[in-house]
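**Protein of interest**
===
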Amino acid sequence: MVTYVLFAAGFLLLVKGADWLVDGASAIGRKARIPEMVIGLTIVSFGTSLPELLVTTMASLEGKAELGVGNVLGSNIANILIILGLAAIVRPLPIHRDTYLIDLPISMFAILLFGFLANTQWQPMDEALHLTRSDGVILLLFFCFFLIYIFGEVKTKNTDAGGEVVPVNVVAAAAKILGGAVLLFFGGEWVVNGASALAKIAGWSEAFIGLTVVAVGTSLPELVTSAVAAYKGNVNIAVGNAIGSNIFNVLWILGFTSIINPIPYSPSSNLDIMMIIFASAALIVAVIVGKRPVISRWEGAIFILIYAGYVAYLLRLQTGA
């Protein structure tokens, strides 16, 4: 019973910890007169991906690699089908030209690169597939290229901090960063341990728990951010947050985690990679169908139904029904 309570509490700590850390870091960023666009593209994007980072890293260090990889892949699927689906139901989402011509292709390239590296045997003497430290360096290298592209976009749009300087309590901001980091640590620990215990009790694999329960739980920051942004009419934030998070998840989180500790990889995860590619393709189709590049409410509902069917299929595999 205590395990279940800590499991649920872990998600709350992850979400609140990410919220505090982003608030504190953003406040200090404004104090340093860093442009809001740069803060959004870096600090906020990193912050909403922190739950996935903590869960994946701890799962890898504790020898629960399937849970960690499942968490990232499941989160990427949820980001497109659940987050964009729900956001589109709240308000139809116009898709910016750069999003479907640049950002989405980069996201698809990232998952294809991961699939190639994870399935490639660089060391013949090792029979098991791994995402090695060398693979992690490659992923982080492409992540650096992505960040260079982001800052290049900021520069070309001539964004500057400008405006009135907002008073910031640096001590309070630093306290939020520290408190957020502490909450993230314990939240990640509780979620990983709780997910592992739940998998054993239910007779399900850690990969399945990671792909479903943990993935949706760690995607809560993105879900809240995108839904609120869509409700307020900030549709570019809603879409960019979900797709940008997918790029961060693969290139940054899996790259960073595999450098700390090589990650064992199961070929069964290739199905989940294919699902991410399918979801991305469905997003492209939704954009090009119709007179305007928009994800409509009915297309958002279809996304949700596709995700429900995917989870039902995974559950059927687990139960053998």
